[in-house]
Amino acid sequence: MWSCGLLNGTAWGEDPRCQDLRLALWVLSLLYLVAGVPVGLGYNMLLVLANLSSKGTMTMPDVYFVNMAVAGLVLGALAPAHLLGPPHSRWAPWTLGSEAQVTLLILFNVASLVTMYSTALLSLDYYIERALPRTYMASVYNTRHVCGFVWGGALLTSFSSLLFYICSHVSSRVAECATMRNTEAADAILVLIGYVVPGMAVLYALVLIARVHKEATPLDQDTGRLEPWVHRLLVATVCTQFGLWTPHYLTLLGHAVLASWGRPVDGHSLGVLHLAKDLSKVLALASSSVTPLLYHHINRGFPSKLRRLLRKVPCGRRRCAPDPAGAPRATAQA
Q1: Which 3 state secondary structure label does DSSP give 301?
Q2: 183: closest CA among 204, 161, 199?
Q3: Model-level pTM?
Q4: What is the pLDDT of the chain when averaged over all its residues?
Q5: Do the beta carbons of residue 114 and residue 154 sit within 8 Å?
Q6: Contact 130, 235 (CB under 8 A)
Q7: Is 168 within 8 Å of 182 (Cβ atoms)?
Q8: pLDDT digit string (tens) for 254-294?
Q9: Of 24, 182, 234, 256, which has the fewest beta carbons less than 10 angstroms from its beta carbon?
């Protein structure tokens, strides 16, 4: 539906049907900005605030979902610039300078790495908690360490690829970057560290989890075990994240493969690649809106956290509603 070919030897940009497809993709992006982005920002903010306001009840999955929610907030904030202003779009309402493009690219890639790493670590820690209950591998007791590890690891592992991207934009002003203008190498590195490595970790964790589920042990009766809905949340999250991010990394891989052939890419292949990049970016950004909805729908403890969060909101001069225990809260003074 989104691809088209050359007609009668015309160039990609002059093909009316290709332009119509690009316009349709632009409309799709606009619809996501109007409906998906506000929903994603709202639910991600609620997820972060509800968990941070109830640190005593945070469990292992909550820590990683907070990281994914923060990454989702970053992606939601970047969505207008990425979807309405791509450098190859004819309908972009604005153009960005080299520094702004590099900044947006860095933030997008770091947020994507945080999302994928959080998904992989969630799978591995779920297996550890499933096999050895009460280990608290990623509980509230070391939340700061986990968050620092995820975000710091995303920055460190993406440094080499980000260096290639930066040099590709500022090579004319920085002499040291003259030999590092290879964006294809940056794409290949991102595919490796942002998709292949987390994908292998998730696959390994799922195999171990399936093996643990088949083996009945005395630990199955432990009351400290994670609730059954956590497994459903894990499977739904893994499928959602990898389903929505796979097209993005496949387009990066396609870009690197086409460049590695060593011959000029024709207009048809280049146009299809740009169109695929646009569509894959919409899907990748949509993950920031879908994940918090899954968390809200499957996590049975999230509604109670929201209620506790709402009770902490000042009520002004009006009397606040009593808590479930029946003790009315003191009315806040304006």
Answers
A1: coil
A2: 161
A3: 0.79
A4: 75
A5: yes
A6: no
A7: yes
A8: 878 877 776 555 556 666 777 788 788 889 999 999 999 99
A9: 24
